[in-house]
Specification:
Elements lengths: L1 H4 L3 H9 L5 E3 L19 E3 H10 L9 E5 L2 E3 L8 E9 L2 E2 L9 E6 L4 E2 L2 E2 L4 E2 L3 E2 L4 E2 L3 E2 L4 E2 L3 E2 L4 E3 L8 E2 L4 E2 L3 E2 L4 E3 L2 E2 L4 E2 L3 E2 L4 E11 L4 E2 L3 E2 L4 E7 L4 E7 L4 E11 L4 E7 L4 E7 L4 E7 L8 E2 L4 E6 L4 H9 L7 H13 L3 H16 L4 H14 L6 H20 L15 H9 L16 H30 L1
Parallel strand pairs: 1-3, 2-4, 3-5, 4-6, 5-7, 7-10, 7-11, 8-12, 9-13, 10-14, 11-15, 12-16, 13-17, 14-18, 15-19, 16-20, 17-21, 18-22, 19-23, 20-24, 21-24, 22-25, 23-26, 24-27, 25-28, 26-28, 27-29, 28-30, 29-31, 30-32, 31-33, 32-34
Helix pairs in contact: 4-6, 5-6, 7-10, 8-9, 8-10
Length: 488
Amino acid sequence: MSEINDLTPAEARVWRAFPRGEAVDFRTVEDEDAVPGGDGGPERTVRASVLRALLLKAPRQEGEVAALKVAGARITGVLDLRYATVDSVVRLSQCRFDDAPDLSGAHLSYLNLTGSVLPGLASARARVDGSLRLTGCRVRGPVRLGGAHISGTLFLEGAELTASDGPQPVLQLKQATIEDEICAPGLRTHGEIRLDGAAVSGSVDLNGARLHHPGHAVLDAQTLVVEGNVLMRRLEAHGWIGLGGARVAGRLDLSHIRLSNPGDAALRASGSVFGELWLRGSASLDGRLNLRRTQIDVLFLEPEAVPDVVLLNNLGYTTLIPHEPAERRLPMLERDREGYVPHAYEQLTAAYRRIGDDQAARLVQLAKQRRHRSTLAWYGRLWGHVQDATVGYGFRPLRACVWLLSLLAVGSAAYGLHHPPPLKPSEAPQFDPVFYTLDLLLPVISFGQEGAFAPQGWYQTLSYVLIITGWILATTVLAGVTRSVSRS
């Protein structure tokens, strides 16, 4: 083969080392702070066609494990392994690729490109039996792993991915299957990461990542399925994160996150299912928080982390921590872009009742009635103000006692000073101002005083006021008690 007959000295070193799995390191002391692959002189330049011939055609040495282990090389041409089966370990670390490798549909045992510089990577529908390591790589074009199947871990820690011109994602993992984890702490991206439809058996670690794509998606992970956790602690992003329809069995950890997408949604997680959602530790969202139709077992949400605009309709959660007074939780519900959302108040009420804080639950229900009042017609608002002022919509029943005692005192004093004349003096019972006032105030109970006497002038007007007020108090108390019982 031509690749064998015209090998350069650098290529010959690689060719001889491959059958025995020996490493070839072209790096020098001067390379420590330089670009991987250096200036690419002939002493370290290897053609991609030679590497392809090694992996697919080179003879093996009996008793040895063949492996391609090269560091610090400049690789020219396209490393074309499309639909090839490579059973040897491939480690091309600290290398500089002139062209993007094409591994589409390939079947590899292990691929390590740690610290390399690439103009892109095409690996759609590739299968890797071990891990794929892109640790510390600098990629200036799209990394295409859509539909890929990686049996081990996808390593991207400290990598820097920059999108080329056009709408393509900088990292494409759509419909990919990762049987272990995505390990990408400290990842830097300038463009979109697309994880929609991907399945990860372990966890996704994006702690400390820096994602930049202003006005667009920095992470589009709709319908992502993760059996472990999704960790985004101290992540900083300019753009929005989409988790609509995602399923995370463990914890979605957004502690200390900095997410900015002003004027639009910063976190879109509608219709998702999370074991836990943590939004805490001075987390900052500059943009809307969308959790509509999302189901969460444990919601760790600090009030300070809630942005100015939220969407919470049909959000369901079992446990809400940390325990905060209702007064600190209610502003979150008042920020809902859809206005009055009854379900949000019911969820918060249920969370307080589950931990036995009935006082907080009553305050939430009272706030719900007041918010609902603002949506009614004028006569509904008027009646609502009456219920609020008298008995707090039934959640403050002691107010009714204060009103009744006050009116009883006024009526008793007024009628005690001026007894109303009896209708039938011969049949009238002895007048008692206290029980006469009670007869006027209580619409159901009768002490035989009201029908036996006929007040006149302003005393008659006072009797009308007491009767009407008594009916209002009785109605509001009954409505409040009924509402409280129905919520218990």
